[in-house]
What does this fold into?
Amino acid sequence: MKITSLKQIWVDADACPKVIKEILFRAADRVGVPVTLVANQPLQVPGSRYIRSIQVAAGFDVADNHIVKQAETGDLVITADIPLAAEVIAKGCLALNPRGDLYTEDNIRQRLNMRDFMDTLRSSGVDTGGPASFSQADRLAFANQLDRLLAK
It folds into this structure.
């Protein structure tokens, strides 16, 4: 069993792909790092002393707010939500999206600006399309980035 410097992994679980959750479950047991899934719906998680789920009330950003309140310096947050990533980075956490992109202090401002720009376009009636389908390459990129973070 490897020892990781990560204290806790928090998962913004409402929109997290199932395959990413499964990678996290295996990693939790392999390295002994606690993984907590936060969602506003009930979640099935495997029986493990390292894995738990928390159901929060329904509502806009309720799960995000719970994660921000509970996460501590050195924790890892799995989310595709850029504003959530920005908040936890400001607290000294790491933030990784399910496609394997690590959000950092150096890139989060640019990503927030792009998100806001695209939101403005959408609210003006411009069809900006949606994200690409989740692919095998995304899954692999996530697993590789997670392994790098757990090995630190």
